[in-house]
Amino acid sequence: MANKVRPVLLLPVAWSPYPEFTHGLHDGLPLLPTKWAPPHLLATRRQLNALGKRPGGQDPVALLYGYSETGHCQWFANLYLISRAKPKLPMTPRKWHALNLANLARRECKRCHRARDYVIPPTFGMCFPCVEASENTNLSNENGADPWAA
Ligand SMILES: [Zn+2]
Predict the structure, then answer these.
(1) Which of 92, 111, 137, 150 is 20 to 30 A from 99 in CA distance terms?
(2) Average of per-residue pLDDT across 94-114
(3) DSSP characters for 81-108?
């Protein structure tokens, strides 16, 4: 339903004592188009992260929405109250260790089980030498003869 015209409604909202203009409700939350959300009161998870904060268990109070550049795809983002956000938790040695293990898993080839210097592309699921090797086996015929032999 791209570019659907939404009605403008005055609704009671969590960030103001007065009803505010919204684009209606979506999943029970007030819907705000981009640039309608007050930036000093509401923030997305990424914006909170940039402020050094996290939602801290609070539920979203509104939904921000917009359209992709082509207009074919609609996106939504949860908006949280900045006043109820908690400070980000610091990284501990155990958290760094878990992050390193997760990054190592992204670099390990599922076929030859070697850790590469790059992230294995999920579309291939294997490192580039393994991709080349599998492409070369596809070239050979059922007899196992060298396809390039004269
Ligand atoms: Zn490999």
Answers:
(1) 111
(2) 94
(3) EGGG-EEPPPP-HHHHHHHHHHHHHHHB
